[in-house]
Design a protein that fits this description.
This is Phosphate-selective porin O and P. It comes from Psychroflexus gondwanensis ACAM 44. The structure is a single chain. It is globular and about 65 Å long. The chain is α+β, with helices and mostly antiparallel strands and 409 residues long. The chain has two domains: 47 residues, no CATH class; 348 residues, Porin (Beta Barrel), CATH 2.40.160. It contains six helices and 16 strands.
């Protein structure tokens, strides 16, 4: 082998000497070094290379269990505000929802789900260390035939059907879910007790920001850092009459600050036959410190409302006229009260109506064109008007757009 190396180096030496004026000894040393280092470089590359990738072209079996989706809702809006200090009209295009979803099965008992909503805040939150645009980042492990365990950032198991809709399909949420913290980090499990009855439980962070980032500017002896800002959620889902009627009830408790929590109850109901679907949610949220911020928004700076109550009703009907046309109607109310333990002062009631028409011209792809009217009306009580200088107002909006939940893989 050494003789071969010397012979090879001599041949290259003669060639290069004719082209480059290097000394024979220097050139020979250089070439021998190159020949000796070449196999070592190859070994180094093999050692530094990463193990076989999880996803590769030849892993066809794995790719069968991976789903990649791109969801978008783009719309043209024509709207106007009237009342209070809000007197203006507007026209614009808007990307109402744009998200990339990757989900699949890593193992026969392990699934994953990831969703990045691009038109959400990308600032990393100081408590859970993820940005709000990452809505899902969790694993689901099948512990037993009846028990699934969830770990990571997920949606809370709140009851009702408004919250369980993908935001892609909701043009306007009611007041609670418009202001609630929907996607948080924690752990949960589902227990399929019987064929038609499932129970779900979660232990979650009650906020995504550290205490000083959320309440640092608020001076109050009642607002202090808890040992653990935690939310506990319990949920029951039931199916009756061969699946035509469903219930989705939940009860939860969360504390963002010490010794002051939020008690949240939701009763969700759903009826479905061949072409008609009706959903009704009742929601009751008693908050010893205002976490939704609706009542708090009318107070002066550096104050926060305490002993607040929100009561809501949400109704949605869907009717399929044909394979291409579907009609929707959403109705909602939300009432807010302050000083619940003393004077129980009514602050505001909001009303909403959203009639919508879907048109799907294609059979093999779920791409919907829609026309919708959104009417929201906000009425303040005489107590709120006298004490906080607020006024009634309304928003009327017409939207024309497209909803496209695109399955890429």
């Amino acid at each position: 082998m050494i003789r071969i190396l010397h012979l090879s180096s001599d041949i290259f030496l003669l060639t290069l000497q004719n082209r480059v004026k290097f000394g024979p000894s220097l050139m020979k040393s250089f070439l021998i070094g190159v020949f000796l280092l070449t196999p070592l470089m190859g070994i180094s590359q093999q050692m530094d290379s990463v193990a076989s990738p999880l996803i590769s072209i030849d892993k066809e079996k794995f790719l069968k269990h991976v789903n990649i989706g791109f969801d978008m809702r783009t719309e043209f809006q024509a709207y106007k505000f009237r009342g209070g200090d809000q007197y203006y009209n507007g026209l614009q295009f808007e990307n109402g929802f744009t998200a990339l979803t990757i989900s699949g099965q890593l193992h026969e008992r392990v699934d994953f789900n990831f969703r990045n909503r691009f038109n959400n805040d990308t600032e990393v939150q100081s408590l859970d260390l993820l940005s709000n645009n990452i809505q899902f980042a969790y694993l689901k492990v099948k512990a037993t035939e009846k028990i699934d365990v969830y770990i990571g950032k997920m949606f809370a198991f709140y009851g009702g059907y408004e919250f369980e809709f993908n935001p892609l399909y909701i043009l306007e949420f009611n007041d609670i879910y418009s202001n609630a913290l929907a996607f948080v980090t924690g752990a949960g499990l589902t227990y399929q007790a019987y064929k038609n009855h499932q129970f779900r439980f979660q232990v979650l962070n009650s906020r995504t920001l550290l205490y000083e980032d959320l309440y640092g500017d608020i001076a109050s002896q009642n607002i202090q850092e808890p040992i653990w800002p935690v939310s506990l959620v319990a949920n029951w889902r039931g199916h009756f009459f061969d699946g035509k009627f469903e219930t989705n009830y939940s009860a939860s408790y969360g504390n963002e600050v010490k010794n002051q929590g939020t008690y949240f109850f939701t009763l969700g109901h759903k009826y479905k036959n061949k072409d008609l679907t009706l959903m009704y949610d009742f929601q009751y949220s008693y908050e010893e410190i205002d976490t939704k911020g609706i009542v708090n928004s009318i107070l002066v700076d550096n104050e926060i409302a305490e002993n607040v109550l929100y009561v809501e009703n949400w109704l949605r009907g869907e009717y399929r006229f044909s394979q291409k046309f579907q009609g929707l109607l959403t109705l909602m109310t939300s009432s807010a009260y302050d000083n619940l333990n003393t004077s129980r002062d009514h602050i505001r009631t909001s009303f909403g109506a959203i009639p919508t028409i879907y048109y799907n011209p294609f059979k093999k792809i779920d791409l919907r064109f829609f026309l919708a009217y959104i009417g929201r009306y906000y009425e303040y009580s005489s107590y709120a008007k006298d004490n906080f200088d607020v006024a009634d107002y309304n928003r009327n909006e017409l939207r024309i757009g497209v909803i496209a939940p695109l399955n890429l893989l």
